[in-house]
Amino acid sequence: MLGIEMMNGVKVSDEILGTFAPIIVYWLYSGIYILLGSLDDYRLHTRKDEDEKNLVSKSDVVKGVLLQQAVQAVVASLLFTLNAAAFPSAITGSDSNPAHAQVTSLIVLARQFLVGMMVLDTWQYFMHRYMHQNKFLYKHIHSQHHRLVVPYAFGALYNHPVEGLLLDTVGGALSFLVSGMSPRASIFFFSFATLKTVDDHCGLWLPGNLFHLLFRNNSAYHDIHHQLYGNKYNFSQPFFVMWDRILGTYMPYSLEKNVNGGFEARPSKEYKED
After folding, report:
1. pLDDT at 220 over 70
2. pLDDT digits (tens, 9 = 90+) for 238-273
3. Which one, of 78, 21, 30, lies nearest residue 58 by Cα?
4. Pairing mode, if any, of strands 11-13 and 253-257?
């Protein structure tokens, strides 16, 4: 079992890091956005709206996220164990030419990341959309996430436990298995996916944000979905917008500066309810 040597000399296995690194990243990155939330000129909603429009307390959000992360940690541990038993040679490969092996490994890693992103996006789009279309699932499961009318960073994974299991845990497991990435590669993939998910819910539009430069699926795009007029659109998450565009659920928007500070994402044209 491979591992990474930590600063104090203790070797931590890739499987443990792959399980817990995304959780640590989630709370650290959310903490940064909590501090940046005081920058009213970059908010998509006012702090007053955040307090008054949301239908769940922040303490309950924290409890809900911790519950989901506990479930994810258990499933990830089982997945790594089963994967290691099924493919023991996957973590012990070698190459007689170190330089060639490094180039090859980078190409393979890039391919695995792209496949993982596509699989995760595809799974989450169709599951997410179905949870909106099925009245029972929306009322009893997915509506919990939409109690956050005004999203904020540490509410990114605030979901009903069943939704967390189906969308995030199963979606992540499929991405890991289909892409063929190693436990070590998964540390970076799931940490990156976690950063992206938190960023999509941060409620801020910050200048120079690399996620906004690289992805059309961003905090403003997802904010549209959390509003009443947009809950039948912009289902894509967390990376691309291709499924929304292909299947006609893409809602174009404009980002406009508010007179009293901050921004507002507004639909570019009128949409009629189905």
Report:
1. yes
2. 999 999 999 999 999 999 999 888 999 999 865 544
3. 30
4. unpaired
3-state SS, residue 247? coil
Alpha carbons 66 and 53: distance in angstroms, whole number: 23
Torsion angle (degrees, nearest 10) of CA 71, 76, 81, 86: 120
Secondary structure, 3-state, 42-61: HECCCHHHHHHHCCCCHHHH
Q: Give pLDDT tens digits for 163-195.
A: 999 999 999 999 999 999 988 899 999 999 999
255 forms bridges with which residues in the sheet?
A: 265
CA separation, residue 52 to residues 57, 64, 108 (Å): 10, 20, 48
Which two tokens mark 107? 């190409």
Separation of alpha carbons 12 and 1, rounded Å = 10
Closest CA to 196 of 209, 208, 185: 209
Two structure tokens written together for 55: 């239908």
Are the C-beta atoms of 159 and 68 separated by less than 8 Å?
yes
Sequence-distant (6+) residues with CB within 8 A of 266 are: 253, 254, 255, 256
- pLDDT one-digit tens code per residue, 10-60: 456 888 898 899 999 999 999 999 999 889 999 999 999 999 999 999 999
Q: What is the number of H-type helices and E-type strands within the chain?
A: 11, 4
The type of residue at 263 is F
Model pLDDT, residue 88 = 64
pLDDT given for residue 99 in this prediction: 53
CB-based contact 50:39 (threshold 8 Å): no
